[in-house]
Amino acid sequence: MSPFKLSAIALALLAGQAAAQTAPQTNAPGPDQKVQASKTQGDKAETGSNADDGKKVTDLAQVTIVDKYDRQNSYTVPDMGTATGLKLAPKDTPQSVSVITRKQMDDLGVTTLEDALKTTTGLNIYRQGYQTRYQSRGFNIAQISEDGVNSTVCTMCGNNPHDQKQLTDTGLYERIEVVRGATGLRKSQSEPGGSINAVRKRPLWQPLTELTASANRFGTVRSGLDMARVLNTEAQLRGRAVLILERSDSFQKHVDGNKAILYGVVDKSFGGMSKLTLGGLYHNERDTPHLFGLPSYPDGTDLRLPRDTYLGANWNYSRYHKYNVFAEWEKQFNDDWKLVSLLDYKKSDSVTEYAYIPQRSNIGADGRVTDGFRGRSDRDTRQWSFKADLDGKYSLFGHRHELYAGYSYEREQFDNLWRGRKLEGSFPIWGWTGNEIPRPDNWDALTREVRFTKPITQTLTLATRLNFGNLHVLAGGSYSHWKQSQYLSWLKEPYSNEKKGFFTPYAGLTYDLGAHNTLYASFADIGQYNGERYDINRQLLPPVRGHSYEIGWKTAWYEGRLNTAVALFQTEKHNYPIDTWLGFDPNTGRVRPWERGDLTIYTPVRMESRGIDLEVSGNVTPEWQLFAGYTYNRRRYTKTAAARTAESNGRGVDFSQHTPKHILRMNTAYRLPGLGGKWLLLAGVNMQSRSSPITINKQKQYLGGYAVWNAGLQYELSKNMKFSLRIDNLADRRYYESYGHRGTNQGHFYGEPRNVTLNFKWTM
């Protein structure tokens, strides 16, 4: 049975259940809501541990739902736990944090993780071959999470053993949480720059039917359905289903695709103190790989190729499937203590076939290139995850404190088969049609490379927040044990097995200056295993260690509806391996210039990143929503690499040349006065300074800075129906998002030209 038929059946069942529900049942309280009983009635509403097992709230008309504020209609959130495990308000979290809310994603019309992260503070996004890279403070983000379950992202690989589609579609998420700086408490095996956690949609106490549709000027058409219902008369069983269908087209010739996603989740409450949640996902997608970007002249001069240029074969394609099931058990022991356990299984497989010029750019005077590549990559990934989080409150020294204890088990398996070969002949840059390169009849006749990687990580975390009046001390640490087996077919000794363990500490201080202002300082740590990497003395490199130091000032305005923050940070990374382009001869063991089959020699370096973060998010007024973030960041190597790489990796050299020194992101929504309050004005800007210098003939070539503006207008035809028109790249700015990623004169990716999108949303 096709996913479309399955989705139709699932949605029909939900609709049938919805018809059986009565109005009072929709007012049942959710876990993020307070219940207040009307004292004038003299009746006591029975909820949670105070309710008898056989009784339910019968007069829900006397129950008032009190939210801290409307989460669905805000640019901020009341609390998050991605940084420390403890559910703390942004003001009380001693690190730089940002949240991309559901309201922001809807206003901006973003549907991918890449586009969503382009809107938040301090993150840099650039293209590199197969992958889109996410950077914070100059460091690649190595782990991306769904509901706290970590998935590894490949940050240093050619033939990618880890599939690049770690997350699916933003239509599945309630919010995306971003932490800048090391997050060893939650992601010890990570990068020191930051982490990302996407929070999936869950069942609601109120019924929801939301239909969305959109179309843009390039031909992308998208529709979505989000339904939530209370599924039984006792209001103990709830369900939610999300269906997404999309046919995509691009400003580039021959770059298109389609996808279908079905997500479903149900939860069942037991006596008001326990809850079981079951969920599943199916994702099917096809797209066109845009691998190596566009070239430039050998001296670095821009070719000024049309923005719709695609230098790939017309048979290029990628196919991707993802399956995900999860089960969560939540046990509320009492008002203070809660245990949440999550079991998650993911499986994905993908195939990419491509031919592309240039893989390296060799442009002659006749405008032809003699370099290119064709290949096929078959990838299969599996991940089994379990995590248990215990949090609660306890009394000590006359004060109430918070405690978090967590355990996680993650077993991943990455299988990759790559076949490829360099193209022969010369090819035209101008007048390219995509028919110049035939598809191979037999991929197995090309060069083969096989990679199997099986890492297992176990982490135990303990943290507490001690509260002494205005002073709060957050201290803890995590111990992580890692083991990995790996097979790399191109090595003379292809098998390797390793295991290691290390401890990562965490410390933070916050001091309340009254009810709304907080000063903070923090130290956070991470570790990464270097794997089978050797130095010139044939000694295994020690694990990578990363440290973040941060001080800042945060303010919560209007009862938390508006948050502001300023932070000074220093982030370090030690023992990072740099390729020396030397290797050990497998026959003699001698050091020589690297040849295929040699064991690569690395040298460890130290890196340092410093800067400032500024952010404001939330409701400036009831009519005005605002998100604005600015980051100033400078980076350098603090320990010189090997002599042969000192020019690019020596002391004082910028280690993350893709990261601009200045990044400004701003998005705002303002409800126009009068006119019945039906018109909403949207505006924003993505601005950054120059970056990505590449050296050609000893001269640096830079990706120029740019500012890309967007604007939109939303009209509420009725309480339940909205139309919006959005224009991205309002001035039709011609710019490169990424530039020269391989240190050669290729790898340039244009930003999208002016795009106009019409959106429709119907909610009931």
Layout of helices and strands:
Layout lengths: L2 H17 L14 E4 L25 E4 L29 E6 H7 L4 H5 L5 E6 L2 E6 L2 E2 L2 E4 L2 E4 L20 E8 L13 E7 L7 E9 L4 E10 L6 E13 L6 E15 L3 E14 L29 E16 L5 E19 L11 E2 L3 E24 L2 E24 L4 E2 L18 E22 L2 E18 L6 E19 L3 E12 L15 E14 L4 E23 L6 E3 L5 E23 L2 E14 L8 H4 L12 E10 L7 E10 L2 E6 L2 E5 L2 E11 L4 E8 L7 E3 L10 E2 L4 E9 L1
Parallel strand pairs: 7-10
Antiparallel strand pairs: 1-2, 3-9, 4-5, 5-6, 7-8, 9-10, 11-12, 11-39, 12-13, 13-14, 14-15, 15-16, 16-17, 17-19, 18-21, 19-20, 20-22, 22-23, 23-24, 24-25, 25-26, 26-27, 27-28, 27-29, 29-30, 30-31, 31-32, 32-35, 33-34, 35-36, 36-39, 37-38
In words, what does this structure look like?
The protein has 764 residues and is mostly beta strands. The chain contains four helices and 39 strands. The model is unreliable at 1-70, 155-159 and 642-646 (pLDDT under 50).
Describe the structure in brief.
By secondary structure, this protein is mainly beta.
CATH H-level superfamily title: TonB-dependent receptor, beta-barrel domain
CATH topology: Maltoporin, Chain A
Tally the helices. Answer: 4
Kindly, what is the distance between the CA atoms of the first and last residues, rounded to a whole number of angstroms? 30 Å
Q: Structural class, please?
A: mainly beta
Low-confidence stretches: 1-70, 155-159, 642-646
Number of strands: 39
Shape: globular
Mean pLDDT: 83
* CATH architecture field: Beta Barrel
- CATH C-level label: Mainly Beta
